[in-house]
Amino acid sequence: MADLFSERRLYLVTPYRADLAGLLEGAVRGGVDLVQIREKLLPDGRLLDVLVEAREITRRLGVPLVVNDRPDLALLAGADAVHVGQGDLPVAAAARLGLPVGVSTHGPAELAAAANAAYAGVGPVFATPTKEGRAPAGLEYVRHAAVYARRPWFAIGGIDRTTVEDVVAAGARRIAVVRAIVDAADPEASARELRAALP
Description:
It is a single chain. α2 packs parallel to α3, α2 packs parallel to α10 and α3 packs across α4. The protein has a single domain, classed as TIM Barrel. An eight-stranded parallel barrel has the order 1-2-3-4-5-6-7-8, surrounded by five helices. The protein is 42% helix and 17% strand. By secondary structure, it is an alpha/beta fold.
């Protein structure tokens, strides 16, 4: 399953929104090739409905779907993988439901401990309101991951068209973004610009 992630370059992480289909269609046209739904506010029943909808959209678009934090709902929705943070279920526990598990890492020790994950998130590279209160890991952590990571990894955190080239120069071959596409006036154009900056 590592191959599923090693082939991906531009990972969109998005909350649910009413125009989810339009957002994802534009983003995928622009070069997004992996999608995560990260939605923390909905009750379980409504969240499952959202994930089933997202699964239908991503299947039609031909891109894998990852669900944040909830391996149970990921399994029920037919998602391709689940993503956990350092304060969520351990990777080994989440993996018992049979889905590949990605994990957020914030420094070298956490990256080393992620050896049994399908992929790692490396960051936040820059300060970002989606990880309020967490100090950025910086480009030095990206450089470390470029040398030492043994699984596919995605640089994440505050990456946009003004910073992506620095992240690539530090050794990233894959990035994950939220606001750079979700908040863009033209998600397709934003995705295309980011994808063009990647190796």
